[in-house]
Specification:
Blueprint (H helix, E strand, L loop, with lengths): L12 H20 L10 H25 L2 H6 L15 H16 L8 H15 L1 H9 L1 H12 L3
Length: about 160
Amino acid sequence: MKDKKHLPLFGVGPIYVVSILLITALAAVSSSKELIPKIEFFKPLMLTLGAVLIISGIGIWCSAVFGSRMDKNIVENKLVTTGIYAYVRNPMYSGVMMTCTGVIFCCNNIILLVLPFVYWAYMTILMKNTEEKWLLALYGKDYEDLRSQKRAHKI
């Protein structure tokens, strides 16, 4: 690859992560103070799903950060297509989103279940308008091929 400028080390991640962490914290506090009514019938299921999502989200995030050495690859200007990046295009953000979704499930509040959809839409819009454009500009056909592969594997 030509000597091109590399991607920003943090990208738009801090904006996304801080936003959804704050919303999740506010939702959890509102739920615990019973400002939003809980539905106790689903409590065991919601807690179990929440725990699974939290553990999975942390695992995905750790795999992206530590397993794929994303910081090193950004500095070296390498497009990562192996490890967790072979399956998820934005695993760091997806891991945080999954963890926040797990916290929402643990709140045992059906009303709050709209938030994971809001998080997903927010991430999709943010990525398409920033990092997706940066990756396409920097890696061109290599990145377009990667996007095409991931679209072909969707269920």
